[in-house]
Amino acid sequence: MDAVKASEPLPSAEAVLRAAPPHALVATARRLLAERVGAEEMTLLLADYGLTVLQPVSHLPHTGPPVPAHDGPAGTAFLSQSPVVEVLREPAGHLVHLPITVRGDRLGVLSVRLPAGAADPDTVLRLGDFATALGHEVSTADRDTDLYHLARRTRRLTLAAEMQWQLLPGRGCAREEYVIGAHLEPAYAIGGDNFDWSTGADRLVLTVTDGMGQGIDASLLTSLAVGALRNARRAGVGLADQASLADQAVFAQYGGKVYASTLLLDFDLATGGVRAVDAGSPQLFRQRAGRTERIELEAQLPLGMFEESPYDEQTFQVEPGDRLIAVSTGVHGTRSAAGDLFGERALRQILSATRPASPHETARAVVAGLIEHYGSKDLTSDAAVVCLDWNGRRGCPTADQPGQDGQDARS
Asked: What is the phi/psi pair of residue 169, to 5°?
């Protein structure tokens, strides 16, 4: 019996992590890496809500001292989304920093200390796969424990912010056809701004919503608007009808006293055709062939302003290599202490400077530029930025498809 057991293959790391209690993932991962690659030490670092630091989850439920999210070996791994191998001298060894990303959503970094000579390419590759598996389990564990939510925060969230972060789908999403990166500020006190997306076999629906007001009132309004949009989307209705049903839900609750400005986009993943409904103030920009231009959409009424407002779809086309950037009112409408509007000119400058950067870093850079313009991290208005890089589907033409700017894709 013992001989048979000895010959049985070890369970996969993924299986062992799945079987671990949610609060024990770090301890289980540490034990697995010690047994299977001879790791001497392991630290799980999670990006905080403001994407400024990586918080080590070293002794649950507490966290160790944070490290910068964009500097140093761990920050470089997070920023570049590539492994970084740090050479250690006393004692000799290697500290391998591996990005943890789940379907395009950057969660943090896994840092693993290995003995000298153990950080060969094959081991680093295996550690990268392990980091991804751990990231999936952390995302799942978030439903059952507060430990990883706590590890992500450098200070207490406001109640409104707590509600908003629970409403978000994540801060990024990636598929063959596109990569999305998004950012919100003030991260620990956000109220009414939101972004949402849903992807299927052939379509991507993306929304940016700006609920009127501040704090709890804005968060409740946005929660209703986003919930109504999701309910309509999941019922299988078209984009304009999604806006109409959400409009009715918000008006029924508030009677036109408050409303939610929303931009709705529906991408055909095969052709690059986009249907759009501009129900309020979020603005949309496109970068193509070195030029940055605002996509002018017909301004329609915000959700809930009047009873049973009609909504119409417009269409435009995206091509491989295009970048789309959607910004809420808190970005394009913010003024500095001197009264200067952040505006389109400043936004275009930042977008041009960050064109080589990833969508995640572009979204963060726009907010960083806004904070610099405003003169304080304590923004008085919420700011949401969503950046999407369009790659297109391999083997599918886009240039000859219907849906060019100003034309109805259905005609």
From this structure: -80, -20
Percent of the chain with pLDDT over 90: 79
State which residues of the chain have pLDDT below 70. 1-8, 59-63, 334-340, 375-378, 396-411
Task: State whether the Cα torsion 353-358-364-366 is positive or negative.
Answer: positive
Q: Are 60 and 42 in contact (CB under 8 A)?
A: no
Q: For residue range 332-383, list pLDDT tens digits in order.
A: 776 666 666 777 788 888 999 999 999 999 999 998 888 887 766 667 788 8
φ and ψ at residue 344, rounded to 5 degrees: -75, -35
Whole-structure pTM value: 0.89
The rounded radius of gyration (Å) of the Cα atoms in the chain is 23
